[in-house]
Amino acid sequence: xxxxxxxxxxxxxxxxxxxxxxxxxxxxxxxxAVAGSWSERWQNWNDGIEPAGLASPNHWxxxxxxxxxxxxxxxxxxx
Length: 79
What we know:
This protein has 79 residues and is mostly beta strands. It has one helix and five strands, in the order E-E-E-E-E-H. A hairpin with a 7-residue loop joins strand 2 (15-21) and strand 3. The protein is globular, with a radius of gyration of 16 Å.
């Protein structure tokens, strides 16, 4: 996963939104991350839970790929 500036985020699909903040001990600390998408109606980034939108995400990355069915079946068989 590579975080990119929110200005470059696609507005046509769900992505991982994040707030990356600077701190003297950790110059690029991830404060929060959530799957979300752009809301045309509200003109903001939204996770589908907070009606007012998210607290100013400043970075994004693609959502990780879901595991294949076989991998899930193996995991369930082991557990």
